[in-house]
Every structure is written in structure tokens, then in C-alpha cells.
Design goal:
WH_DNA-bd_sf, 5-stranded mixed beta sheet, Arc Repressor Mutant, subunit A, D-Maltodextrin-Binding Protein, domain 2, alpha/beta, DNA-binding transcription factor activity, 11 helices, 340 residues
Length: 340
């Protein structure tokens, strides 16, 4: 009788698990001891070895012996089976290390410590080790992700390209007692004070789609160039607003955190836009799908809000039309929608 023909129908055998049983039994010379060392029962080890023998068409152990004695074929196959087990162990360890590798994420300085802590905590629930890196300047975050110094970054983008949007307004230390703050009311006359009221822009908003419309509005309503300032950081901008009558361009969440009184801008509706970008050919969808809500809260965005909506504006109102129709020298006093 010739050698047994391998049964190719046994192709569904768990090759790694079967090789693990074979190696453990073969090295110890006992099905009972080998099975225990491999963390399985003796019947399971026997079935797995039998599945290998059926797949390969040769016996691995002498069935007549009391101990698990390798056949010549078994001795030939044992080194290869060891390599399979070792490769599987290395693969498992690499997978575990990859999961534990920190996800370095460049985030804007507008994220609060509490917001970032909650984001990190929620990431852990999804098995993601998130390592936020606070970067004030939007351009620097874009460069970090481009140069692959971080795995991903929350970039400042125009609202039409944004995943998350945050409405901006003007905040002051004193309650302005109005529904909106009109920039034109900051204009000074000939008997101007030594230091007219200023609007402070924090680094996050020093981007063309926010800064440039504000600059055009400043010029259109007759403010001095110095009345629109870009601060080196949020702390400096907030300190100016807290210590004077100056105004801080910020989100409602930032105003609440800083104990400032927030109002929408009367002539326009500035909006921050954010999108998650991954380095090189990476795909940020896994992080965005699992942590999108936490990222929105961290940025001060409302995931269910209408992107770019002005919470203080009348429904259907067009900011550009309101600006064009309003006389510069005489702001209206329509039941509270008045001056700063």
C-alpha cells in the first residue's frame, strides 16, 4: 500500500493552532503535558494534530507508543511548524504594538484642557491611544501633518470644506445688554479717546476666510487699523478683553470658559471650519467615525447644528444684505439689536 494521499478537503484547519499543538506535544513527548503547556485540553490537542496529519497525508506521531514519539515525517516537519508558531506570535505582538502606538494628533489652541481630557478618555474606550499636541497656529498644524511629524491634525478650513463648524462672535468683560454687537459702533470721532476699543483676533482665527472679511468690514465702517489686532496667543487676547472694554473674537464655548459675555457680530457671521487630515496616504476615517462627537465637543462645535448658522441672527437673514442696507453713522435700535 502506498503513502496516504493528503485530504485537501481539510483546508479549513486552523493551521497556526494545529502547529502550536503539534510543536508543544512534539517537544514534550506527551499529549497531556504538551496540551497543558499550549493552554488547551488533551482532546483538543489530539484533534488538532489529527487534522494536520489528515491535511498532510502522513502521521506525525507513532500511535503504538505510550509516549508521543515523532515519526520520521514528524521530525522533518517540526522545525517548519516551529517557524509557523513563531511567526504567528511575532505577528500578534506587532499587532498589539501597532494598536498601542500613540495617535499623535495636532489640535488647535481653542481646545480646553477638559475637552482634550474627555477626548483622550473616549479614545481609550475605543482602544486608541491618543496623544494630542496643542498647536496655536493653523499653518503650523498643516505643516506638521504634511511633514508627518504627527499622524493627523485638525486643520482650519473654509466652512464649505469643514467637517465641524463653530460660530464666532464678540465677547466682552461687561454685559453689552444688546442682542448683537455691531462693529460700526466702535468707530471713534474727532474727539477720540486715547485708546479706542479694539477687537482681538486669536491665532486660530488669523486665517484669510475670517481675518480678511473682518478687515474689509473694519475699513468699510471707518475703524482705525489699530482697532483690529491679532494677538500672539489666546491668553494675551483674553487678558486684553478682561482688563478693558476691548472685545475678543471667539466662540460661545470659549467665552463661557473665560467668563466673558458673548454676542454675535451684527454685520456678518464669521465661522471657524475644521477638518481632520491624516499624514501621507493615511485614512482618518477610523478616528473620525469613532471620535467625531468628542472632537466636535472639544472644538466647541455642535454636531447637530446647521454649519455656519448664526445663533443670534434672524432666520433667513443675509449678513451681506444687512450690512449693505445699514447706514454706517446711525446703527438701529430695534428692541435691543443695537450698539455695543
Amino acid at each position: 500500500m502506498g503513502p496516504a494521499v493528503p485530504d485537501r478537503r481539510a483546508g479549513t484547519v486552523d493551521l497556526v493552532a494545529a502547529c502550536r499543538a503539534f510543536v508543544s506535544v512534539g517537544e514534550r513527548g506527551s499529549f497531556t503535558v504538551g496540551a497543558a503547556a499550549a493552554g488547551m485540553s488533551q482532546p483538543v490537542a489530539s484533534r488538532r494534530v489529527a487534522a494536520l496529519e489528515k491535511r498532510w497525508g502522513e502521521q506525525l506521531f507513532e500511535r503504538a507508543a505510550r509516549r508521543a514519539v515523532l515519526t520520521p515525517f514528524g521530525r522533518d516537519m517540526l522545525p517548519a511548524a516551529r517557524r509557523v508558531v513563531l511567526a504567528a506570535d511575532v505577528l500578534e505582538q506587532d499587532a498589539l504594538s501597532a494598536r498601542r502606538k500613540p495617535w499623535r494628533l495636532a489640535v488647535p489652541g481653542v481646545c480646553s484642557t477638559l475637552g482634550l481630557a474627555r477626548l483622550v478618555a473616549e479614545a481609550r474606550e475605543h482602544g486608541i491611544v491618543l496623544e494630542p499636541r496643542v498647536v496655536q497656529a493653523p499653518a503650523e498644524r498643516a505643516e506638521l501633518v504634511r511633514s508627518q511629524q504627527v499622524r493627523a491634525a485638525l486643520l482650519a478650513v473654509v466652512p464649505d470644506e469643514a467637517t465641524w463648524t463653530v460660530p464666532l462672535g464678540l465677547a466682552a468683560a461687561r454685559d453689552p445688554d444688546v442682542r448683537r454687537v455691531y462693529v460700526e459702533t466702535l468707530r471713534v470721532g474727532r474727539t477720540a479717546p486715547d485708546r479706542p476699543r479694539r477687537i482681538w483676533i486669536q491665532p486660530e482665527d488669523d486665517v484669510p476666510h475670517i481675518r480678511d472679511p473682518l478687515t474689509r468690514l473694519r475699513d468699510a465702517v471707518g475703524l482705525r487699523p489699530s482697532q483690529l489686532r491679532v494677538a500672539p496667543d489666546l491668553m494675551t487676547a483674553a487678558a486684553e478683553a478682561l482688563a478693558s472694554d476691548d472685545l475678543l473674537l471667539c466662540s460661545p464655548a470659549q467665552a463661557a470658559e473665560l467668563a466673558l459675555h458673548w454676542r454675535p457680530v451684527g454685520e456678518m457671521a464669521p465661522v471657524r471650519g475644521f477638518a481632520l487630515a491624516a499624514a501621507a496616504s493615511g485614512d482618518p476615517r477610523r478616528i473620525r467615525e469613532r471620535l467625531g462627537g468628542a472632537m466636535a465637543r472639544c472644538l466647541g462645535a455642535d454636531p447637530g447644528a446647521d454649519p455656519g448658522a448664526d445663533p443670534g441672527a434672524d432666520p433667513g437673514a443675509d449678513p451681506a444684505a444687512r450690512t449693505a442696507a445699514r447706514p454706517a453713522a446711525h446703527p438701529p435700535h430695534d428692541g435691543g439689536a443695537g450698539t455695543a
